[in-house]
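Hi Q.,

Before the meeting this afternoon, I wanted you to have the phosphoric acid mono(formamide)ester prediction in hand. No need to reply - just skim if you have a minute. The sequence and ligand are here:
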Amino acid sequence: MGLKQKDLLSMRELSAEEITLILDTAESMKEVSTRDIKKVPTLRGKTVINLFYEPSTRTRTSFEIAGKRLSADVVNIATEKSSVVKGETLRDTGKTLMAMNPDVVVIRHPAPGAPRILAETLSASIINAGDGAHEHPTQALLDLFTIRERKGRLEGLSGVIVGDILHSRVARSNIHGMRKMGMSVRLAGPATLLPRFIDQLGVEVFTDLEEAIKGVDVIMMLRIQLERQGRTFFPSLREYSRLFGLNLERLKRAREDILIMHPGPINRGVEIAPEVADGPYSLILDQVSNGVAVRMALLYLLMGGAS
Ligand code: CP
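Predicted structure with the ligand bound:
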């Protein structure tokens, strides 16, 4: 079985079977990264373009490593050094790149829907690496992979996503992904950072972090996205940290086998205390490692591979 769709634009559009296929394929891909020679010829002759209109460390690097471990040719475009700064539109940039015949274009863009515009314009497969506050599907897939790796399953587990839900594409993609895979989902944060009607996605909403973390299997902390906030949503960072920061004291209210996650980059001492981020329950670096395996799986499956 392979993936039927040309593109990966959102978790909302993936079925539970397709998510399971991607996670299962990522398990095989993970083994490649443990070898002395971390390279297989699977995608030899294929071309992947990374087109990032926003900063990224984890996503851009792991797509590059993923492509290279599968022997694809990977080209990174730094938009601040490209003709984008001369006013070229997204469609024109896309058509220009398409004239060089890539097989996959990975795009990160501040505008929600930008990856879909490229997908409708280009015959290459488009992967959404984060579009505004809309979705970040590959992050949700690596998060699900990381939880399944630790717990052996997803069905029946519970998770709470904490913080700046309003501006978070990671939260939106994880809500869709976790719900599809049979997890129950809570959201917690200040009322000003919880979108209206979000409960219609089948989640429970909390404004008290200590209540929200009781009994759940996974706590996923989110970064406060100051760069997306045009106005003030809480009195001060200190106040936010006091009410919604995850520290060792607060962690005592969580299960003994709790898993702590964060998509990164973290604001140390704001949403997460350093002792928690670097502590024994933290999966933050596992998430980064698993990002390579999951993105290898996606490149392979979107270029016609089957499990
Ligand atoms: N989690 C994530 O998307 O990180 P980067 O912005 O570093 O890619």
